[in-house]
Amino acid sequence: MEHSEETFAGKNGIKLPMNASQFFVRCLENEGIKYVYGIPGEENIHMIDAFNGSSIRFILVRYEQAASFMADIYGRLTGLPGVCIATLGPGAINLVLGTADANTDSVPLVAISAPVGLNRIYKESHQIVDLVSMFKPLTKWAALIQSAEAIPEMVRSAFNQAQTERPGAVYLAFPQDVECLPAPEGYHPLKINIVHDSSPSATQIARAVKKPIVLGQGHGAVHDHASEALIYFSECLRIPVATTFIGKGVFPDNHPNSLGAAGFMLHDYVNFGFDQTDVVICVGYDLQEFDLVRINPKGDKQIIRFHCKNFRISM
Questions:
Q1: For helices 151-163 and 20-30, what crossing angle results, to 10°?
Q2: 16 by DSSP, 3-state: which?
Q3: Which end of the chain is more exposed for a tag (fewer CB within 10 A), N or C?
């Protein structure tokens, strides 16, 4: 966006000075956000009101936890960050479950809440909770917006971290008094830089040895719609493919190269295939989903890992 961010179209088309909430929403629009799930309240009402003058559809829920899981599912289905919003204290805490679920499952999600104003942050104040400290161990990044001037960088950083490898959840605290500040004069949403994962080098490929097997796992393979490329890869090189339980469906079970889904038993049928291999190609691998010790107990197999946006084949 190259136009000035100093005014905002109010009622009857009258140009009004833009506040920090409206500027924040412009930054969300710049990220391509179309839906935000949440509950309005006194603390975030300025942001909720800003959605009315934007292209973003605010979807009202009855419970903040539902908002977090709706954002979680949106991220799973689209590969784009789902966004959920709450107020302060208990309302923001209700976002924790869906946010943590998204983070552990490598789903891009941005959680936003409106904690007490900075002028109340160290006082004995109603429903004051250190939300940043609460969300930090559950997310890739959690931060407090302390000025209107920091909004472009912090929004861009949040969405960048949510989407880059390994994808996950982030949290932004947007205090009530910062929401009401005037938008910084002359500031604009930052341009989006698309991060491309590096391809493996020729020497890395050369170190892959002679008896490969593919472990097609869930999150990375599903999010990047890698099924067609995975089938093509397997057929061209005649490599057998196993999946995890979340990755079921990424590779057809009736395909002649399919080994089926690897279970959690110490040595089920699929594991006999891993006994005979010396290199495991993990597509969309995530330690949260499947511990490699189950198929590589001695640590003597080569592991090649592909995650989202890595597994591309020209067809």
A1: 30
A2: strand
A3: C
- 306 beta partners: 283
Looking at CATH, the fold of the domain delimited by 202-306 is given as: Rossmann fold (3.40.50)
Within 13 Å and on the Cβ side, how many CA atoms surround 197? 16
Query: Residue written as tokens 């009402």?
Result: 45
Give the 3-state secondary structure of 123-140.
CCCCCCCCHHHHHHHHCC
Q: Does domain 7-179 have CATH number 1.10.10.10?
A: no
In order of 100, 117, 119, 195, 263, the CA distances from 122 in angstroms are 27, 10, 8, 39, 50
- As a residue count, the chain comes to 315
Instruction: Name the nearest CA neighbour of 171 among 146, 128, 129, 139.
Output: 139
pLDDT, tens only, 44-74: 999 999 999 899 999 999 999 999 999 999 9
Q: Three-state SS for 6? A: coil
CATH topology of 7-179 equal to that of 202-306?
yes
Measure the CA–CA gap between 70 and 75, rounded to whole angstroms.
9
Q: Would the pTM count as exceeding 0.70?
A: no
Q: What are 70's two structure tokens?
A: 């709706």
Count the Cβ atoms, other than its own, within 10 Å of residue 50.
24
What are the sequence ranges of the domains in the chain?
7-179, 202-306
pLDDT tens digits for range 189-210: 998 876 555 566 666 666 655 6
Q: How far apart are CA 104 and CA 95, in angstroms?
A: 15
Q: Are 239 and 280 in contact (CB under 8 A)?
A: no
